[in-house]
Amino acid sequence: MTDPFATERSAIAQRIAAAGKIFNEETIANFAPLYAALHARTKKPAVKISRDISYGPHPQRHLLDIHTLEGASEGAKPIVIFFHGGGLVRGNKDGGGPFYANFGSFFAANGAVGINATYRLAPEIQWPEGARDVGAAAAWAAAHAAEFGGDPRRIILVGHSAGATHVASYIYRPGLHSKAGPNFSAAILMSGVYGIDVENPPANHRAYYGEDRSKYSAMQIVGNVDACKFPVLVTVAEYDPLRFESGAYKLLAELVEKGAPNLRVKQFLGHNHISPALATGTGDKDIEDTLLAFLASL
Questions:
Q1: pLDDT in tens, 66-100
Q2: DSSP string, the chain
Q3: pLDDT digits over 36-46, tens only?
Q4: Contact 277, 171 (CB under 8 A)
Q5: What span, in angstroms and rounded, lies between the C-alpha atoms of 294 and 298?
Q6: What's the confidence (pLDDT) of residue 185?
Q7: Residues 187, 44, 232, CA angle at the centre, nearest 5°?
Q8: What average pLDDT does the structure give for the chain?
Q9: CB atoms within 10 A of CB 109
Q10: Is the pLDDT of residue 146 over 80?
Q11: pTM exceeds 0.90
């Protein structure tokens, strides 16, 4: 099938290549409107969104939205929970415009129940509370799955950037799982940070991990992986900053060394750190086929 946005995608890819591996607030501001325009022109099925449902005690941050397809067939569907990025200190499930509702609605339109979740931020909370919020959202989804047509045995956790950091912290640390179990069956880690720069930690890392650098090696994910028996897809973007790209490959090396089964890897060519999250739901086949193929394999 011909991509109706081939010309636009090519122009965006050229701009991404010209910007290179630079990622900051300006990067988001430059590319979000371009993808918002594609979303506005993409024909999409009707999706019902139940907004701002509480999954924990924090009145502003323990909130999630549930996306279900209007007129969907009967039967329990896999539940895909998306956790946004924001460098551990910012971000929201309501990222502005179509973002990040595009994730929940994309999975709802493709045979699942989509959930977008917001979590607490540093410095209000510190490690490992972000990962605990992932677990709390998953536990809530498992407990309430029957209410929205979800299957509590098939919960897939998806994190982008800082969201991937929290998801990875949760899935690879069984000590954070509840006595009832981990409440997830698979995970997708998109461009996360899995290590901490001990020599020169950025302000956002100090806000979340604290000022005692002697504790960083025990807090970071790399070097502390308890091999996960569940399927995991790890993705990076061609123009991810090196701290994201190198961290992903260090995590993958550790997972391979420890014999983690059901491990998949994908590099999104022509994309930068933010663009895979923005492009999902616009018909970008490389991204969407990768996500749906992983979902179909479970």
A1: 999 998 888 899 999 999 999 999 999 999 889 99
A2: ---TTHHHHHHHHHHHHHHTT--SHHHHHHHHHHHHHHHHHS----EEEEEEEE-SS-TTTSEEEEEEETTPPSS-EEEEEEE--STTT---S--BTTBTHHHHHHHHTTTSEEEEE----TTTS-TTHHHHHHHHHHHHHHHHGGGGTEEEEEEEEEEETHHHHHHHHHHT-GGGSBTTB---SEEEEES---S--SSS--HHHHHHH-S-GGGHHHHSSTT------S-EEEEEEEE--HHHHHHHHHHHHHHHHTT-SSEEEEEEEEEESSHHHHHTTTT-HHHHHHHHHHHHH-
A3: 999 999 999 99
A4: no
A5: 7
A6: 96
A7: 10
A8: 96
A9: 18
A10: yes
A11: yes
Question: Based on the number of CB atoms within 10 Å of its own CB, is 229 exposed (0-12), middle (13-18) or buried (19 or more)?
Answer: exposed
CA-to-CA separations, 129 to 22, 166, 274, in angstroms, rounded: 29, 9, 24
For residue 57, cis peptide bond before it (omega within 30 degrees of 0) = no
Let me know: does 235 contact 160? Beta carbons within 8 Å. no
How many residues are present in the chain? 298
